[in-house]
Amino acid sequence: MRRKGMITILALVLLMAGWCGVGWAKDMVRAEVTEPDAIVTPNGLANGTIHVVYTVNALAFTTGFFNSFDLNLDIAARSGNPETAYPLTLNLTQKQSGDASLELTPATPSFGVNGPGAVGSTGVTVTIPSGAPDDDETTLTGVLQLEASPGSGNNAHLDTITTIVVKVILLHPTACLKVVDFITDQDFTRMLATATASAPIEVKVKNGNIQNTNPPQLSDNILIANNCSDAQTFDLQIALDSRFETSPAGNPGNAVFTYQTTGIYEEPTTSLGSFGTGTPQGQQLCLGNVTVPAGQTFLATVHMRIGSNVTTALPEDGTFDFLAAVLETASSSCSSGTYLWLAGPNPAPVQLPFMVTVQGNSK
């Protein structure tokens, strides 16, 4: 049974006539790979080396059965001396091709042959070994060699120069859900921080305690554009800096709103005009089972303010840190803890710098 939706196959047949240097005396084995998803060149029986190349779009190989293809064998008659000695046995033998070799298992590993003509067909199973590396562009290789017996050195006098080389290449997928975390004032009139640029906000301190910020009300915003070919469903976990709280906090008011619109928006924006009316989400910082159709953009906004903390609680590096993570959906929202590989960057960070202004102390 084939694995679907994750392989692209390219099969190339390279002709190598007369490769063994013995001349045109012996009969010759020819081979053909039949693979419904493949492009085979040339499309017919050939002697030489057959390359079957698979590409896997994933972050890692899956151990075990990968795919299978059909191998058809034929013997072409040629006149000369010495003549091929029949009957003989034609064997399919796997050759070692490295520590991470593919396992190639022919259903029929040998064929009895009585003369020129069709020999037969066999399915060949391709298996991914355990412990295969998962670096981008990792290539696993397996080699099947046709060999004739009896005797060593091909005493059957049959040209068996056909070799089947199978490669499986791991290509890490490109994120098609584009994620941007950015910060504005609550009214979306002023951009405060993005992944690439920001201006410090003012933190007002009096008697060693934080009073508020300027601007006093902020909005942490997560923009997710779906460039994928189909709809995507995910959980969105929003992590505010530990010094901040939703506004309002601790009451039934709505601090979180979500929006969705047609079109791809991948840049931070201070305009909500194209997003229309938002949907209130209370004070949830975990938004579960969010579905975004292909070609649409999702936006979540979190109204927030700094809490009343002593100044020693302010970060020493002069920045507040916010984070948004796109997670695989789970039976309980945001509980999978697994980052969705289709999203990038994931998690998406944003830093908000600040400067401290000390107010007059009361006596």
Give an overview of the whole structure.
This protein is mostly beta strands. Helix content is 0%, strand content 51%. The protein contains no helices and 26 strands. Strands 13, 14, 17, 19, 20, 21, 23 and 25 form an eight-stranded mixed β-sheet that branches. It has a seven-stranded mixed β-sheet with strand order 3-1-4-12-10-6-8, with no helix packed on it. It has a six-stranded mixed β-sheet with strand order 16-15-26-24-18-22, with no helix packed on it. Strand 13 and strand 14 form a beta hairpin. It is rod-shaped, with a radius of gyration of 32 Å. The model is unreliable at 1-25 (pLDDT under 50).
Descriptors:
single chain, 363 residues, mainly beta, eight-stranded mixed sheet, seven-stranded mixed sheet
Mean pLDDT: 84
Structural class: mainly beta
Query: How would a crystallographer describe the biggest sheet?
Result: 8 strands, mixed
What is the 3D form? rod-shaped
Order of helices and strands: EEEEEEEEEEEEEEEEEEEEEEEEEE
Report Rg: 32 Å
Which oligomerization state do the chains in this entry correspond to? Answer: single chain
Strand residues, percent:
over 45%
Which residues sit in consecutive blocks of at least 5 with pLDDT less than 50?
1-25
Distance between the termini: 81 Å
How many distinct beta strands? 26
Instruction: Bin the helical content.
Output: under 10%
- The total of helices stands at 0
